């Protein structure tokens, strides 16, 4: 298995002989609106050209339809006949964008010898959660491969813990930018009287997951590309060091970096 972080939550995963593209977000640097008033998004360029990223992709796996996970540039550049796997709530909208081979997973499917299980995710908590919509994660299993859990946009909560208990994933990919919306900006014009709180894992939640599943290899992504991140790579390294966690237990890849297992 090889996991390559492209940018944000966009991954290219070589698994059981297939190339799987996760959550394609191809927008040019600062081409989209700000989410906090700090900077337009994404805040960094892609590490490679879109053609390089799409080379040899067999399947696209989409956790949800927020634009930092499946954007207009991805819709424009992806072959309309490429195979796409998504959660049931998103299939009609993806088909409406012209894609012809879209499969929604209710529970699990077998694709090209790879078992793909859909798992629950919770994109925040409290009053702000209903504005974030439905999100899913996925667990991949195949002969002679380590099991891989792509959590998706989720905080640490019982649904993630239960998925770990059920599947015992050997490798976990966590979206860990601690992203948060501030009441002063009120992006969605919902009359925010308080900050949203973390809508994906932050340092403390990541540490709780590590304590829950210390035998798993954790990879952190969804860091360093959006203006509502509250976690930085350097800050996370310092935090983990303060907790006495070895750097090889929780990996913090740079954009474009490949990790082999």
Please describe what this structure looks like.
The protein is α/β, with parallel strands linked by helices. Helices cover 18% and strands 24% of the residues. The chain is built from six helices and 14 strands. It has helices spanning 50-54, 72-77, 91-96, 158-167, 203-212, 233-242; strands at 2-7, 10-15, 18-22, 59-61, 83-86, 101-104, 108-111, 114-120, 136-141, 148-150, 171-175, 217-221, 250-251, 258-260. The chain starts with a strand and ends with a strand.
Poorly predicted runs are none
Summed up, the helix count is: 6
Characterize the biggest β-sheet: 7 strands, mixed
Helix residue percentage: 10-25%
The count of DSSP E runs of length 2 or more, i.e. the number of strands, is: 14
- C-alpha termini separation: 5 Å
Structural class: alpha/beta
What is the 3D form? globular
One letter per element, helices H and strands E, the order comes to EEEHEHEHEEEEEHEHEHEE
Question: Approximately what portion of the residues adopt beta-strand conformation?
Answer: 15-25%
**What's the alpha carbon Rg, rounded to whole Å?**
17 Å
Please give a handful of descriptors for the protein shown.
261 residues; alpha/beta; seven-stranded mixed sheet; 6 helices; 14 strands
What's the topology here?
Layout: E1 2-7, E2 10-15, E3 18-22, H1 50-54, E4 59-61, H2 72-77, E5 83-86, H3 91-96, E6 101-104, E7 108-111, E8 114-120, E9 136-141, E10 148-150, H4 158-167, E11 171-175, H5 203-212, E12 217-221, H6 233-242, E13 250-251, E14 258-260
Parallel strand pairs: 3-4, 4-5, 5-6, 10-11, 11-12, 12-13
Antiparallel strand pairs: 1-2, 1-14, 2-3, 7-8, 8-9, 9-10
């Amino acid at each position: 298995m090889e996991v390559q972080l492209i940018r944000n939550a966009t991954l290219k995963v070589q698994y059981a002989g297939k190339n799987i593209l996760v959550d394609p977000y191809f927008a040019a640097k600062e081409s989209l609106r700000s989410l906090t008033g700090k900077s337009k998004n994404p805040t960094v360029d892609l590490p490679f050209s879109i053609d390089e990223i799409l080379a040899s992709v067999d399947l696209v796996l989409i956790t949800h339809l927020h634009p930092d996970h499946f954007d207009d540039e991805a819709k424009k550049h992806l072959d309309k006949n490429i195979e796409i796997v998504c959660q049931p709530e998103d299939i009609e909208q993806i088909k409406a964008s012209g894609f012809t081979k879209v499969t929604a997973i209710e529970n699990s499917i077998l694709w090209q010898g790879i078992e793909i299980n859909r798992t629950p995710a919770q994109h925040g908590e409290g009053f702000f959660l209903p504005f974030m919509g439905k999100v899913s994660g996925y667990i991949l299993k195949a002969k002679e491969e380590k099991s891989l859990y792509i959590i998706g946009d989720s905080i640490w909560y019982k649904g993630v813990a239960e998925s770990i208990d059920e599947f015992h994933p050997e490798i976990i990919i966590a979206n860990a930018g601690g992203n948060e919306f501030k009441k002063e900006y009120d992006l969605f014009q919902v009359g925010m009287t308080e900050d949203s709180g973390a809508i994906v894992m932050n340092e403390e939640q990541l540490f709780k997951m590590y304590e829950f599943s210390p035998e798993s290899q954790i990879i952190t992504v969804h860091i360093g590309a959006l203006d509502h991140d509250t976690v930085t790579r350097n800050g996370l390294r310092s935090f983990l060091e303060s907790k006495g966690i070895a750097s090889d237990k929780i990996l913090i890849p740079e954009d474009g970096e490949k990790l082999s297992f």
